[in-house]
Amino acid sequence: MSFIIKLGRWAAQSRLRSLALEKDNLKLELEFLRAQINPHFLFNTLNSVYSLIEDKDKTAAFIVVSLSDMMRYALYDAATTEVDVAKELAFIQNYIEIQQIRHRRRLAVELDIAPDLGPQRIPPLLLINFVENAVKHGVDKLRHDAWVRIRAYRDERGAFCFAVANARPAQAGADIHEGIGTRNTRRRLDILYPGAYALQTSHTATQFDILLRLWPPQTG
């Protein structure tokens, strides 16, 4: 009799666990669907805004399109482990163009992307931190003569190189760019490219430079 009672209890507990699992699965499915719906709603709203202002304010319409492209990259492409570097550079270009509109004529930007970069896969949102720092610690703190230079190229050893230089306030400290974002980027690089990258920074009284090199993978 005790065996039958234990068996009944086990069956009841098993049923409860099964119901709990079904509930958790349903919750996850609903959260997944909600996550899919929210971006669609957001993009549809941006499209509606664009249609309303397209003929009235070309600059605002341009910002809406650029912002939509950036959000699509951040929501979808950035959810993957790697992206083609061309997508990251397009994201950066949209970011820079919005910053130029924001700062109007106060910001000069030079964007030099080598045409012969070839295929290069990188973790998404790896490079944007360097550009954001250039704006945050350089452009935003200067009243005039603000500038940013961005280069993407391959060096003589075939390494992918990403260089950012920017004007900096004369009173800025030496570690002005070494914030949480840059430290996190260094940790990402340590994990993803152990012994296969170099990140160098330098500065003068009026300029800050950062250069990232990613060595090509070893073969053979």
UniProtKB/TrEMBL annotation:
<dbReference type="Pfam" id="PF06580">
    <property type="entry name" value="His_kinase"/>
</dbReference>
<dbReference type="GO" id="GO:0000155">
    <property type="term" value="F:phosphorelay sensor kinase activity"/>
</dbReference>
<feature type="domain" description="Signal transduction histidine kinase internal region">
    <location>
        <begin position="29"/>
        <end position="107"/>
    </location>
</feature>
<protein>
    <recommendedName>
        <fullName>Signal transduction histidine kinase internal region domain-containing protein</fullName>
    </recommendedName>
</protein>
<dbReference type="InterPro" id="IPR010559">
    <property type="entry name" value="Sig_transdc_His_kin_internal"/>
</dbReference>
<dbReference type="GO" id="GO:0016020">
    <property type="term" value="C:membrane"/>
</dbReference>
<dbReference type="InterPro" id="IPR050640">
    <property type="entry name" value="Bact_2-comp_sensor_kinase"/>
</dbReference>
<dbReference type="InterPro" id="IPR036890">
    <property type="entry name" value="HATPase_C_sf"/>
</dbReference>
